[in-house]
Amino acid sequence: MPLKTFEEYERLAAIAHGHLCAGQILGLRMALYGVRLLGIDDPEGADRKHLVTYVEIDRCATDAIPIVTGCRLGKRALKFRDFGKVAATFCDLRENRAVRVAALESARLRAREMYPDMASPNQQQMRAYRELPDAELFHTEWVRVTIGPEDLPGYKAAKVVCAECGEGVSFKREVVRDGCTLCRACAGARYYEPL
Ligand SMILES: [Zn+2]
Ligand SMILES: [Zn+2]
């Protein structure tokens, strides 16, 4: 399954995300740019085993990225680092190289300059984000991402059981304290309070 047309990606993104918006278009463009920079032309087919994507925000653009890359959370190929930035890093595991693509703040201003008569910023941006060249939408940098074996898709290891809550913990996420094997929640990193 080589890359699809942009119209087809827009259609798929609208279904997955629930609506088509400027963020979807920006996310699709970001992912297409990322895989192109890595030289990956079949991310959902022949190249699917060696692409991992890190995303940095939980907003619209992030939903569009797996539409192009095929990298999904449940396949361990999509990693979320909550930095609040419209940016993503595309890692080619085979070549051990990675490129980070970040949306430029100036892109929104460019959209307003291009289409001042359009009703809403979303309309301006949807149109402009389809048309602007990559260099006016994104900043890119080649980076090194060190991914531990336990974070890679396909990692296999025995699950352990937390000594306190009895829940299973995979992928070395356990904490050993005073000879006791605990899950992260029981070790103190709980994000919820039992009632
Ligand atoms: Zn949206
Ligand atoms: Zn526990």
Helix content: 25-40%
Q: Unreliable segments (pLDDT under 50, ≥5 consecutive)?
A: none
What is the average per-residue confidence, as pLDDT, rounded to a whole number? 95
C-alpha geometry: elongated
Task: Explain what you see.
- The chain is an alpha+beta fold and 195 residues long.
- 35% of the residues lie in helices and 19% in strands.
- The protein has 7 helices and 9 strands.
- The strands form 3 sheets. Strands 2-1-3-4-5 form a 5-stranded mixed sheet. The protein has a two-stranded antiparallel ribbon with strand order 6-7. A two-stranded antiparallel sheet has the order 8-9.
- A hairpin with a 2-residue loop joins β8 and β9.
- α4 packs across α5.
- It is elongated, with a radius of gyration of 20 Å.
- It starts with 5 loop residues before the first helix and ends in a 6-residue tail after the last helix.
- 32% of the residues are buried.
- The model has no long low-confidence stretch (mean pLDDT 95).
- Bound molecules: zinc ion (ZN) (2 copies).
Secondary structure topology:
Blueprint: H1 6-17, H2 22-38, E1 51-55, H3 60-69, E2 78-80, E3 87-92, E4 97-103, H4 106-114, H5 121-131, H6 134-137, E5 138-143, E6 160-161, E7 168-169, E8 175-177, E9 180-182, H7 185-189
Helix pairs in contact: 1-3, 2-3, 2-5, 4-5
The structure holds zinc ion (2 copies).
One zinc ion (ZN) is lined by residues 17, 19, 21, 23-24, 60.
Condensed summary:
The protein is an alpha+beta fold and 195 residues long. The protein has helices spanning 6-17, 22-38, 60-69, 106-114, 121-131, 134-137, 185-189, and strands spanning 51-55, 78-80, 87-92, 97-103, 138-143, 160-161, 168-169, 175-177, 180-182.
